[in-house]
TrEMBL record, chains A, B:
Residues in HTH lacI-type domain copies: 20-74
The protein's name: LacI family DNA-binding transcriptional regulator
Pfam families: LacI, Peripla_BP_3
Region entry Disordered, spans: 370-390
Biological source species: Kitasatospora cystarginea
GO molecular function, one term: DNA binding
PROSITE patterns: HTH_LACI_1, HTH_LACI_2
DNA sequence: AGTTCATGGAGAAACGGTACTTCTCGCCCG
DNA sequence: CGGGCGAGAAGTACCGTTTCTCCATGAACT
């Protein structure tokens, strides 16, 4: 059955050593290309015998369907963009901080588990790079207010799910930690450990994380009647953190406990404390937000707040893929409900409509170590573990 | 000029709110789609007036060319795969170690700079994920001998460049550090600092890095007449490292200097030394291979070997894109030369032919800190910086 | 006046699949 | 005995670009 591909008249020029196409398989198996497509994709009504025969022929010919052609026809590429923010001159902070690294890893893994692959794209990349890639959807990390990129993606119909509650950008959905609850929890924790004046090391940027956390701190201060004691610095500048930590401990109204919002704050504060002869936790209680496990090994070990980035990454991707498949699957599996808005943990998805995009708040986890306890150190107690993986 | 797209008779069904296509632009501008394509891509012979008019119309309509269609037609997707190895049960070690994280970041950046985006793909992902993505080429990190994935990619004509000298897989090109020179340099450095018996903490896996480094160590021992003192452990198991470090220092023939091949070895060895009451660097000289800057802050700071992952990532990607564009550009910019084989720093590219794939060896950098010096600590001396960026 | 040539642009064939629609049977049933 | 039905499979219109070929037209040249 060498009814070659040429017989179909579709290949006028002599075929070079190019890859086998679906037509070659069809010719070799003595069936139509429709049958080949159906057999390989498990569609259509075909007896198992035909199906397996076609598959075998395809295997023998080393046939690999063209992803480009499939994407063009089906409108789905199986590609998800992972937008990473860019600070300063460096292309992006992707993998710079443990948070992003872990989040990205979990996101990649989750996407792959559902048959999608992730494309890493800095938000600042040239427009042509973005539009040169067929994306089924995009995960955007911590979008700034009015991000033009996000707006355009959203407008052009590409689902966008953000990690971090978006400011003014329209997104399909978003996921974030309950930063307010986290900060309040830490402040209470420090209070219970005996802190009388709790300081905050925070950032100058206006992203949601910094803003919500700082606001929660200020609200707490007002509530308990403590004068706020905080220092700010540009979080993306690693050197500035040490300086700010020093400033905070050099103040006349020096705090006896500090919460640092960013990953390196723990070591910065520890070093500053050492310079001022302050002993941790005796003279100074310390907590910082970090995903790094180096704080389990510092002297003393430092209590950290984990944002559980893996959980976030997984959730974000799943939400995005739900949106992609829900919206486009045609069957219209109406998962829609209510009017959208913030809800707690078990994420759901809203298919269409107006109003605020649905958001999901994920809990954080406080890993209590010696630096925030005046007695019985070395105990590691976690907040009650919520359901869900990771 | 509402000569609508329907006039062409190509859109029988009523157009919904879909994105504008090139036909819509052509109709709106009153030209043919060829002209639109040429105008937008800077091709063809068109007066500037037409060009700018078409561009303006396209802009007004919010036209974005379909990446899928372009890919199908041109055979180029602008996508590069970044294959990450997978250890144990975790999906992949991507971003697990600082080396990979930095390398990936540099690779992403380099690719973007040349108009390509990176797709992160674990080597273990299901075959269908791989073949579902149109890749112009692939970067593979540390391929194991006879990697079937790499073989198939290579066979199907996709350029493959590996980070790490490949074992038996055919690749287009590869980049690696000069591990032998690095290890010999460290051993000499430790010797000069007064070490009499240098131990090695190495891995059990058979990847090139581990193998070459260990062999270099053994060769050095034989040359200087020292009995080898080393312990091995599965490098992907973080807990095993501490145990192995302990074993090494518990030996009757305890070394007075140790080089640890993996990132966490520094802290592991430091902790083990403390347990045995050994002072660093007085009783024990320490060097480990790491990209982490925590070793600048340990007590004492630890001398590290940096593999300069950013430089590697950049080089790998550039080599790959050279291969992609060199092979397919048709113009045949014959960069070809010689017969291929290992060469030092300035990377070149071989277009075709048989024989060993061209490899590029990149130098490493020893960051000397207190842990490997008996006198005058705190000095940071680098190896002479080679040309090239980063 | 007829041939070149450059200019500006249109036509249509791919690219390689997928998904409707249609066709041909053989069979069952009224 | 005709029509409906369902299985098995083929036909073919797209998906939205790029690119190759070709066609006018007018100016310049012989």
């Amino acid at each position: 059955m060498t009814a070659a591909a040429n017989q179909s008249g579709r290949r006028p020029t002599s075929r070079r050593l190019e890859r086998a196409g679906i037509r070659d398989v069809a010719a070799a198996a003595g069936v139509s290309i429709t049958t080949v497509s159906d057999a390989l994709n498990g569609k259509g009504r075909l007896p198992d015998e035909t199906r397996s025969r076609v598959r075998e022929v395809a295997e023998r010919l080393g046939y690999r369907p063209s992803a480009a052609a499939r994407t063009l026809r089906t409108g789905r590429s199986g590609l998800i963009g992972l937008t990473v923010t860019t600070y300063g001159e460096e292309p992006f902070t992707f993998t710079e901080f443990a948070y992003f690294a872990e989040m990205a890893r979990a996101a990649t893994s989750a996407a792959l588990g559902r048959g999608y692959a992730l494309v890493v794209l800095p938000a600042s990349s040239r427009h042509d790079v973005w539009s040169n890639i067929a994306l089924d959807g995009t995960v955007v990390i911590d979008p700034p207010d009015q991000d033009p990129l996000v707006s355009e993606l959203y407008r052009s119909g590409v689902p966008v799910v953000s990690d971090g509650k978006p400011g003014n950008c329209p997104v399909t959905a978003w996921v974030d930690n309950d930063h307010e609850a986290a900060v309040l929890g830490i402040l209470d924790h420090l209070s219970e450990a005996g802190a009388r004046r709790i300081g905050l090391l925070t950032g100058t940027s206006t992203d949601t994380y910094t803003r919500l956390s700082t606001e929660a701190y200020l609200a707490w201060c007002k509530r308990v009647g403590q004068e706020p004691v905080y220092e700010t610095y540009p979080a993306h500048d690693p050197a500035a953190g040490a300086v700010a930590a020093d400033r905070l401990l050099a103040r006349p109204d020096r705090p006896d406990a500090v919460y640092g919002l960013f990953d390196p704050n723990g070591t910065d504060l520890l070093a500053a404390a050492r310079r001022y002869g302050l002993r941790v936790p005796d003279d100074l209680l310390l907590v910082c937000c970090s995903e790094s496990d180096v704080y389990a090994g510092t002297e003393p070990p430092i209590t950290t707040l984990s944002l559980k980035p893996r959980r976030i990454g997984t959730t974000v991707v799943n939400l995005l893929i739900d949106a992609i498949e829900g919206v486009d699957s045609g069957t219209g599996v109406a998962l829609s409900d209510l009017t959208g808005g913030t809800r707690l943990f078990p994420p759901r998805f809203r298919t269409a409509g107006t109003g605020p995009p649905p958001g999901t708040l994920m809990p954080t986890e406080l890993i209590v170590r010696a630096s925030s306890q005046r007695r019985s150190p070395r105990t590691t107690i976690s907040a009650p573990r919520p359901p869900g993986e990771v």
